[in-house]
């Protein structure tokens, strides 16, 4: 048995032109059930009217999307509705404030709370329509299912690409100082330079990050560590300057 929110979420994906296979993989619902709902079950007019067609603030949504893909999740409330939760490390109090502000801008009127956990805080927001705004939500871990943007999300990211990059770096990335040595005139000298790292296990999320960097003219390099290609590096001087201008370190 599936609850109403699951059924309506699957139907919304079908209405966006998605195939039954892709909807089934994303939601964990069988194709036969989705086919049955699509042909026999219609969302109530009240739900159709209430479900937001787009975020209230597109630029803030692009940033929040990056945070969600990196360190966020959506979970159902036992009595209906859903919680959006974004984990923010205690080391970066400014990130917590940016995340909270983005949630408020994207869904004005939604309940938002900052819940302290060990080593981090959880920016938590209750609203019945978070799955509508983040259709990447589904059962299991993100790296174990397909992650792709739907058309309206792609339009927002195309309009606000730096917002997405900033959110991804602020969740699963960092800016640090790297170093190397060179021998000049027989003397070994140490050189330091800034670098941006982004690390994510999901192939789809890393591809979304690098594809967006490509559109922005940012040079990047895939770095394999211990046989795992989870790290993306931006180290070229001009590209780091771009990232500094539009992203900057967490604080």
Helices, strands, pairings?
Blueprint: H1 4-15, H2 20-27, H3 31-40, H4 45-50, H5 58-71, E1 72-76, E2 82-89, H6 93-106, E3 111-117, E4 120-127, H7 130-133, H8 151-159, H9 161-172, E5 173-184, E6 187-199, H10 203-216, E7 221-225, E8 228-234, H11 237-246
Helix pairs in contact: 1-2, 5-6, 5-8, 5-9, 8-9, 9-10
How would you explain this protein's 3D organization?
The protein is of the alpha+beta class. Among the domains are: 1-51; 166-246, Endonuclease I-creI (Roll), CATH 3.10.28. Helix content is 45%, strand content 26%. The chain is built from eleven helices and eight strands. It has a four-stranded antiparallel beta sheet. The protein has a four-stranded antiparallel beta sheet with strand order 5-6-8-7. α1 (4-15) runs antiparallel to α2 (20-27) and α5 packs parallel to α9. The chain is globular and about 75 Å long. It starts with a helix and ends in a 5-residue tail after the last helix.
In short, what is this structure?
The chain is 45% helix and 26% strand. With 251 residues, it is of the alpha+beta class.
């Amino acid at each position: 048995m599936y609850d109403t929110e699951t059924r309506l979420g699957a139907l919304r994906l079908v209405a966006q032109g998605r195939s039954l296979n892709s909807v089934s993989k994303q939601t964990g619902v069988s194709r036969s059930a989705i086919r049955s709902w699509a042909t026999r079950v219609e969302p109530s007019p009240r739900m159709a009217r209430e479900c937001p067609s787009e975020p209230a603030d597109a630029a803030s949504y692009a940033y929040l999307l990056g945070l969600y893909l990196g360190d966020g999740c959506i979970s159902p409330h036992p009595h209906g509705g859903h919680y959006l939760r974004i984990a923010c490390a205690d080391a970066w109090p400014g990130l917590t404030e940016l995340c909270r502000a983005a949630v408020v801008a994207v869904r004005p009127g939604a309940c938002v709370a900052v819940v302290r956990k060990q080593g981090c805080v959880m920016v938590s927001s209750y609203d019945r329509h978070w799955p509508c705004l983040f259709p990447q939500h589904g059962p299991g871990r993100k790296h174990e299912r397909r992650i792709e943007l739907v058309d309206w999300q792609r339009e927002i990211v195309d309009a606000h690409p730096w917002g997405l990059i900033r959110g991804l770096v602020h969740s699963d990335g960092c800016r640090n100082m790297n170093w190397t040595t060179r021998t000049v005139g027989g003397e070994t000298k140490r050189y330091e330079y800034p670098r941006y790292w982004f690390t994510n296990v999901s192939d789809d999320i890393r591809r979304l990050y690098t594809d967006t960097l490509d559109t922005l003219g940012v040079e990047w390099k895939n770095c394999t560590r211990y046989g795992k290609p989870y790290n993306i590096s931006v180290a070229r001087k001009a590209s780091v300057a771009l990232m500094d201008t539009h992203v900057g370190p967490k604080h």
